[in-house]
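cache lookup: miss for this entity combination. No prior model stored, computing from scratch. Input as submitted by user K.M.:
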Amino acid sequence: MKLKLVSLTKKFTSLRGSVRAVDGIDLEIQDNEFFVLLGPSGCGKSTVLNLIAGLEKPTGGEIWFDDRVVACAKKKIFFTPKERNVAFVFQSYALYPHLSVFENIAFPLRIIGEDVTKIKESVKRVGAMLEISNLFSARPCELSGGQRQRVAIARAIVRYPNVFLLDEPLSNLDAQLRVSTRDELKRLQQRLGVTTIYVTHDQVEAMTLGDRIALLKDGRVEQIGTPDQLYECPASEFAAKFIGSPPMNIFEAEVSEEGEEFYIIIGGEKIKMPDDKAEELKRLKGRSCAFGIRPEDIHIPAPILRAWKSKRSQYLKAKIDLIEPMGRERFFHITINEHRFSLLTTDVRFKQGEVVDVEFDLKKLHIFEKK
Amino acid sequence: MKEEKVKFIIIIAGSIFMVIFCILPFIFMALVSFSSRPDFLSARTLFSFTLKNYYSVLTTPSLHFIDYLRNSLVISGISAGFCVLIAALAAYSITRLSLPHKTFILFFVLAVSMFPQISLVSYLFKFMAGVGWINTYRALVFPYIAWILPLSLWILVSYFAQIPRDLDRAGLIDGCSRWQILRKIIFPVAAPGIFSTALLAFIFAFNEFMFALMLTSDHHARTVPVGIALFQGLHGELPWGDIMAASTITTIPVVILTIMFQRHIIQGLTRGAVKG
């Protein structure tokens, strides 16, 4: 099932005034795609999901399922969730507390009036798939978080939905379980081949699960792309900060132009920009911009390399304020002339308080226009 | 350690006092009902056990006690049933549907329920006389439903508000209509609350006196509280033994119901108390 959102808008009116939770979103989601809606809380991602599910009516715009309009504010078309045949996994799981696990999973089938033997078959099938067959007679209150999660997913997939919608389904699980469930979810989606839309505020989840990610901010799409695209070429300062852990260093620096060459000045040190960056700076001339560099793109060169490379690169003096060991890597908080940066390295030689030379990988420098 | 002890003693002493304070009238009632000479005002008479009072209450046709009991049970049952049905539907729409001026409706209902009964009863009498319903079940059932509805509504609203909205949404996704959500999800989940509200409504209707006194005239519709109160008029004296025996019998259905739903009632009452 292919999905299309056309300038989708949702306004909420309360006594305090109206809020545009979703503000003109255009999206196209391909058949069988695992699509992630990512954003901070309050960005409207859950509202978009509710609109797709048919739990909310849009204030403006259209929603298409393949070549069928399922919601259009102008023409007053609105299909109910039942007519859209969507499945939804809620953050709270929303299992029916008065029914057993078996009945919970069978519930959607019973509502359509499915044949009893068929219901048994279907429930057994998804129960085996999610390894919860031994829990069929239990009540939801007797289950652990992870088990409830599985039951919720089982209930969602038991009737071959057109679209599979998940609203932060992993946020109530502990860290370890979250990682293993994440893998399973991805595998399950590939096996079922159902178009899936997944809402999360966790960029790691988004990166690992999504075929494509839409980053939302204040009800608008900030950037759409594959996880790699979002990581390598963030479209804005916001996208740069939101994706990646630890987040990208964002800093402001003076730009100076000498003939055809562009320099930026960090910590009193003039650094020459490579050609492609110079061109970008030329384009943005006169506008205020910010620079960004990921922690892994600031290097502390080894002494030998340093002597060898010193002709070609420029080093900056940095003081190490704090070292956070993270196992495979170490996370350094450094200051370069009052500017704070963070960097990631596997080097274990350095101590807190030491002053070292660092080098920016200028090819990986990002330039953002300030709005 | 010492503080703990003092706390313990205070709690125990307080509980004992409360229990005695509440249960003493009942014990007295039961004692008098079993006494062969229920002249309890005189301290000199000795207690002697008898079932005579019960026998007379249950068998004397002119007392109509059985009629009163039947009237009470039927009227209270019907009132409680309808009341809870209406209140549950109203509570669902107030907590779930996009209804304009929800809070206003809730507080208006509360304000209406504040009218003292005595201010309504004369008009009610005129009205019931006008439509010719005096001394029928209808004359009591309709006012009771209206009178108990605010209480039921408030308890159920606070109860329904605690049922997560995601359950409704899950129901919608699974293909339920609003009615199916109500019948298959909300009512079963809220069953303890609905039961305890029904029981409270029943007790309220069962104990009601004023409307029953004004709107009924004989055993065809008169309820137990009024019936017992009017025992005295029948014999020219105060038949305390009969009165107490009748009262004791009357408490039995309520006690049975309360014991049956004890756990649910406590839950329901505290929920209502905290939220409403």
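stored under new cache key. Chain A touches chain B at residues 53-55, 80-82, 86-88, 90-92, 94-98, 107-108, 111-112, 155 (CB under 8 Å).
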